[in-house]
Amino acid sequence: MTAPTGRPPMTGADPAEPGTGADPSVTVARSGSSEAAPETAATDPAAATGTTDTAAAPTATAAARPGRKAGLTAVIGHRLFWPGVVLALLLLANVLFTPGFLSIQMKDGHLYGSLVDIARFGAPLILVAVGMTLVIATGGIDLSVGSVVAISGALSCLWISGLGDQQDVGGVLVAVGLALGLSLVLGLWNGFLVAGFGIQPIIATLILMVAGRGLAQLITDGQIITINSSPYKLIGGGYWLTLPFGIIVVAAVLAITAFLTRRLALGLLIESVGGNATASRLAGIRSRGLIITVYAFCALCAGIAGLMISSNVSSADGNNAGLWIELDAILAVVIGGTSLVGGRFSLGGTVLGALVIQTLTTTIYSVGIPPETTLLFKALVVTVVCLLQSPAFREKVFHRRGRRPGASPTSADPKVKVPA
Amino acid sequence: MSSDVATSGPSGSSGSSGSSGPKGSATGRPSRAAVLRGRERYIPVMATGALLLAMFVVGGMRYEAFASGQIVLNVFIDNAFLLVVAIGMTFVILTGGIDLSVGSVVALSTMISASLVTGQGWPPLVVIPLVLLIGAALGFAMGSIIHYFDIQPFIVTLAGMFLARGLCYTIGTDSIPITDETYTAIAQTRIDLSAEMFISPSVLIALAVVVVATYVLHYTRLGRNVYAVGGNEQSAMLMGLPVARTKIAVYTISGFCSALGGVLLSFYMLSGYGLHAVGMELDAIAAVVIGGTLLTGGSGYVLGTVLGVLVLGLIQTIISFEGTLSSWWTKIFIGMLLFVFILLQRLITARRS
């Protein structure tokens, strides 16, 4: 469909046509070379992508229905194509270096195997990244998740360590409830700063990112609290129905989130707030409440991840638990094709992105590369994926293939356009 | 004519906003920068100055031997590297960007210096310029990617952060001591100001950076461009200002300042280590914010950043004087200060818009 045949008479950049997104007959809105003067593109990539952005709506509609011979182009242009390729390549590398990598065995009624391990150790990251996805979809960002992970783990371990009987399920449940409750409060605080005071999200959450580490250390009194509680151990290290419990939790959270955002209107509302907060407010959407909810949800996810991490090692370390997980989570979201600008999101992409990161880490260990170089590979993967997804990069390097922005909208394009 | 606003996230610094229309009314960014005029522009900086003074007075009343000039000078000595890094960060934040790679570049600089000087026996006069060059080159590369490929500064510098940290670990995972005479001589030099007071050469270098940065920001074309791009990138471009050159320049400056900070840190620590300066990017950003620079860009002063660094340093000094407070209280206090200052900024800007 990027073939030169399907050029519409009007371009998607035409502000007079906000309804083009719904028009399936529009195929390619912006056909690089001829319409946008090359000089403009060179000196002014920001404006160029701006145009592409507005053009994204019709393109995405078209992407859903690939033409006759354009199937391949549509696949390559799909937002999950490049992350998928990277994941496949990583898995392939593993298979080459470790025969039997893909095998999954049943031992003692539990599933074992490298793939299961990737999912299990990646579970906290997926959780945090899912929460982060929704925050980023509203055009925000949450830097405080790492601190929330530490606080949640610290509080629950502190409570459990104070129990007379650490095997008491009721006590553990209270600990979990307390930790998640506190996470929720922290999330509300973030959301309140962002939506109530109108503070820039990156700064509003920076406060909790810095102070939260201190709080976590305050809770643990600077020590590492170790506990010995088998009910608590279940959350991060146990098995249930042959599967690691963590995977089940992630699947449940994912299912609920997917249902709420994709089957109900919530996702659309979130995307419209991210697309243009003012316009969505004028359209009658209560953006303030939505934003607060999203931050609270993100912190709740981080809280659950914190329980998993601390339960997996049966201890709480206020200093190092969840360190840099916010960066990994943002990375996962970006790799998954969700634009940091907001206005659209892809849960599937985020899960894919988180799996890419976790697989990368696992690969480095299994292939025998010194683990110190993990960061180098991470940098490489981030750069490659981000460049491949950058419309400006595609424009310049692939010339004709770069028409479709990597972060094209997912199911619907809610980008609200209003004459200013 | 195409005055619609398609996208404008609050973090939309690299401007993928729609067409050529005025930028995001949702964020209020241009208006916010524009309204910071007149005397009220100085309120955040003055508030930081007042806070610094208040902290010093309270400290002086609470603790003996606190109210001496050397305490202030020690804050400078212990934070000279942070000061340099934060000034580089100020440039980036003034354009509305962010640089997360600074801490890693600092660590990389110490690591390269240590491995070349101690391991290879290179003379420091070769190593230091080389390190500065590497830092600037890293910044240049990140700036170019940010501008030409239109990727968020947050993500690009995050990749740069991973890259620099990763390079540290590939050089070596252990701390490498520096025993070179030049380094130890600089580390031990005390420049006496009076009988009781002294500073280190690093402080002089940091102050020189402050002076140069102030000059560049306020008296050169580059400085005006930095403020213009931060105020509104679209407008700056329409005015014919060299947006590309300016944006790449600020990241190059930040990379250079980080490398210089790394050199100062290697004077201070006399070692190179991949775990040096972990989280320094947060300290630098906090210093810039406490110094009254708007993270949306376009408004702020180098002097504010200097005061911000001093506030952070003084918090640590007070906590060490207090003795009973544990180190994590530093983080909590910094978080609280961030909150107060951001709220203050918000109130000032909201009142006028």
From TrEMBL, chain A:
InterPro entries: ABC_transp_permease. The keyword Nuclease does not apply. Its main location: membrane. The chain crosses the membrane at residues 80-98, 118-136, 143-163, 169-189, 201-219, 239-260, 290-309, 321-342, 349-369, 375-393. Residues 35-62 have a biased composition (Low complexity). GO terms for molecular function: transmembrane transporter activity. It is a multi-pass membrane protein. It is found in: Cell membrane. One of its GO terms (cellular component) is plasma membrane. Residues 1-62, 399-420 are annotated as: Disordered. The keyword Chaperone does not apply. It comes from the Bacteria. Keywords: Cell membrane, Membrane, Transmembrane, Transmembrane helix. PANTHER family: ABC TRANSPORTER PERMEASE PROTEIN YPHD-RELATED-RELATED, GALACTOFURANOSE TRANSPORTER PERMEASE PROTEIN YTFT. This is Sugar ABC transporter permease. It comes from Planobispora siamensis.
TrEMBL record, chain B:
The chain crosses the membrane at residues 42-59, 71-94, 100-118, 125-148, 154-172, 193-217, 248-270, 282-315, 327-348. It is found in: Cell membrane. The keyword Ion transport does not apply. Its main location: membrane. Residues 8-25 have a biased composition (Low complexity). One of its GO terms (cellular component) is plasma membrane. The keyword GTP-binding does not apply. It is a multi-pass membrane protein. It comes from the Bacteria. NCBIfam families: PRK11618.1. This is Sugar ABC transporter permease.
